[in-house]
């Protein structure tokens, strides 16, 4: 009996120790998984904070690379001095063109094509819809405008000036809004033109 009591006590102690060991393992595992979870949350929080600060810095405005003052739009060391506007016949039947005349001066150290820079930074809308450039009608009265249009696709050497024009094809006689943007797409100036 003494022997079975001894074996019973030993088994009870063994079960108690096994139970404590399992509980300790669970506690250790719980602490370990808690630390892992906390580290993951901290890491995620840091990533979220870091990506939001990158996002907010990319959304904040960059230094503008263009200016507009006194009817002069300057971008990339090229100045377009706006000299007038007109409404003239379009090559599209029953449509007109809104024409902006300008004198362009190249202050870069390399040749530029005026229409390339203009089209990448100037756009027009009417009634909230973007306007296309359109085409001049082939009439003798528009020979001068055709010559100016040809100037805009010819390279302008450094330090040189030429006259040109830009066209937009409005859908009706409502006002046209022309937006001038810098190389980052930031709006520098918007002008409103009445077509009447």
From TrEMBL:
Signal peptide region: 1-25
Domain DUF5067 per the UniProt entry, residue ranges: 55-182
Stretches for region Disordered: 26-61
Superkingdom as given in the UniProt entry: Bacteria
InterPro entries noted in UniProt: DUF5067 (IPR031989), Immunoprotect_excell_Ig-like (IPR029050)
Nucleus keyword on record: no
Cited Pfam families: DUF5067
Statement: the UniProt record of this protein carries the keyword Signal: yes
Keyword terms of this UniProt record: Signal
Record-given protein name: DUF5067 domain-containing protein
Annotated organism of origin: Levilactobacillus fuyuanensis
Native organism taxonomy: Bacteria, Bacillati, Bacillota, Bacilli, Lactobacillales
């Amino acid at each position: 009996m003494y022997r079975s009591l001894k074996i019973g006590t030993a088994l009870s102690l063994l079960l108690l120790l096994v139970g404590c060991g399992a509980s300790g393992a669970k506690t250790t595992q719980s602490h370990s998984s808690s630390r892992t979870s906390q580290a993951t949350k901290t890491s995620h929080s840091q990533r979220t904070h870091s990506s939001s600060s990158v996002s907010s810095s990319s959304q904040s405005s960059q230094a503008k690379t263009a200016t507009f003052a006194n009817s002069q739009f300057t971008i990339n060391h090229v100045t377009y001095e706006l000299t007038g506007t007109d409404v003239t016949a379009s090559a599209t039947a029953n449509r007109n063109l809104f024409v902006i005349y300008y004198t362009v001066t190249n202050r870069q150290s390399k040749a530029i094509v005026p229409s390339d820079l203009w089209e990448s930074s100037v756009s027009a809308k009417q009634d909230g819809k973007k306007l296309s450039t359109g085409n001049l009608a082939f009439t003798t009265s528009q020979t001068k405008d055709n010559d100016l249009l040809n100037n805009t696709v010819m390279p302008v050497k450094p330090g040189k000036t030429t006259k040109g024009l830009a066209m937009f094809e409005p859908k009706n006689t409502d006002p046209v809004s022309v937006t001038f943007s810098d190389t980052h797409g930031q709006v520098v100036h918007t002008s409103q033109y009445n077509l009447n």
